[in-house]
Sequence to fold (367 residues):
Amino acid sequence: MKQHLDRIADYSKVVIFGCGGVGSEVYKHLKCEVNNVFISICDNHKKGEEYFGIEVISPEDACARYPDALFIIGSELYCDEMISQLRDIGIDDDNILSDLTLTLKYLRTTARQYLQKVDYHITEHCNLKCASCNHFSNIAEEHFADINEFRSTFGRFAEIMGDKLEGLILLGGEPLLHQMINQFLVSARNLMPKGYITLYTNGMLLKQMPQGFWNACRHSDIVLSISVYPIRLDIAEISQIAGRQGVRLSFLVRESWFKDALDLEGKQDVLSSFSRCGQANGCSQLKNGRLFPCSVAAGIEHFNKAFSESLSPCEKDSLDVFSDISPQKVLEFLASPIPFCRFCNKDAIEIHPWKLTDCSIEEYLPR
Ligand code: SF4
Ligand code: SF4
Fold:
């Protein structure tokens, strides 16, 4: 990727093709590492939607508008098809960057200059229960986060990171199940006056949320991000309510699903797992006064309890945020594999259509 970054610096315009997990990762990294480059995003299925404040256009439009740009392929899964498509619409091979394995390995193992966001679970359990949930909320017992623990852990972390922390994601489980959700929102904003704060929800409870919730969202400048699953959800009415309440909404369509397979014996190579992990260096989570690099290490207690397993994280799998740490130490920690990565089998990742859980261990094991 270092060579890639040098190559990108030769271009005044870059188009990221694909705005899924990989495309987003590429975007975030470019924003950190490359100056003075115009970035556009194109996608076959998300034309007109907005990502990172950029309107997504079609590959054809991107080709017409930016024929000399560098096109970066933002998908591991559909890489070959995307290259063919770009060639068919007239993009020269020299203007296509598709070496994603190396690119992603570099992105994940290089300390960022700032932390784009950190996650915090408001609840561990969920009212939807998707198969293979990588937060283990489908099998987690009911658990509500403690507001004082949130204030102390996130407050300390925000203080350490200062302007190196850009945002906070409040999620779960389903965070709207928490009776004190409003206090979390207001506290989050008090503790981080400037950054962005997003509340992730599956949206099922939104229509019945009381006025106080909408007031807290509006006053604290919280964006609601609705994960849209193939379930009945009145998006039009929810959008109307949010519009009336002056609360910003965004949507993330979740029709297909990554199954993160675990290796119960822990025999995987940690660097190999980490460098192929969609959560690595991008999905850190604060929990119990510690910073974990991912939801898997942070939530494995639920898996262990549900299936009587013992894939326990060790001290080195997380950072004690109350210890003597600096922003640099945090950013370096997040760019390094942890011992727990030996339990993640990235050769066995599967993509399947979304479905409800049957709470079997097979949802987390290779086929
Ligand atoms: S809605 Fe989200 S948190 Fe809940 S089970 Fe599904 S993936 Fe997990
Ligand atoms: S333990 Fe490592 S490989 Fe597994 S999800 Fe977390 S960061 Fe990724």
Summary: The chain has a mean pLDDT of 92. The CA atoms of residues 4 and 258 lie 27 Å apart.
